Amino acid sequence: MKYQSVTPGIQYTDLAQPKEFFIDFMGFKVIHEEPDFCVVQRDGVKFCLHIDEEYSKNLAPLFRIETDDIQAVWQELLAKDPTKSRIHPRFKDGPELRPWSAWEFAVGWGDHVCLVFQEWTNKDQA
Description:
The chain is an alpha/beta fold and 126 residues long. The protein folds into two domains: 1-59, 2,3-Dihydroxybiphenyl 1,2-Dioxygenase, domain 1, CATH 3.10.180.10; 60-126, Roll (2,3-Dihydroxybiphenyl 1,2-Dioxygenase, domain 1), CATH 3.10.180.10. 21% of the residues lie in helices and 35% in strands. It has helices at residues 16-25, 53-58, 70-80; strands at 9-12, 29-34, 37-42, 45-51, 62-66, 96-97, 102-108, 114-120. Strands 1-4-3-2 form a four-stranded mixed β-sheet. A four-stranded mixed β-sheet has the order 5-8-7-6, with helices on one face. It is globular, with a radius of gyration of 15 Å. The relative contact order is 0.18. This is Glyoxalase. It comes from Cerasicoccus arenae.
C-alpha cells in the first residue's frame, strides 16, 4: 500500500472568484461541479472548492505545488497577469532560490488562497 496524492479542500463564501482564479488564471479544468462544491484539476493536481461561510472567514490556506520547470510556470502566469497583481509582492522580480534549495514564487489574491510554486534544485529532497 502507498499513498497516491493529496487533494486539498478550500472553503469560500461563494465560488465565483475562486473558479475564475483557478480556471481562467491558473488553467485548471472543472472535473465535477455542484451548486456549492466543485473539483478542479490540472495535470496531477486537484483542489476541492467548497462553500462554507464559517471556515472561509477563519482560514487562509497556503499550498505548495512542485514543478519541474518553474520558469515556464512563471512565464505562463506573467503572460496572464503582466501587472503582477496576483503575484505575491515578495516575488515581483521572479522566482527566488530559498534557503531550503527550492526555487519559489507565490500567487493568490487578497487574503485568499496562496499557491507557492517550487522547483527543487536537489531532486532527492523533493
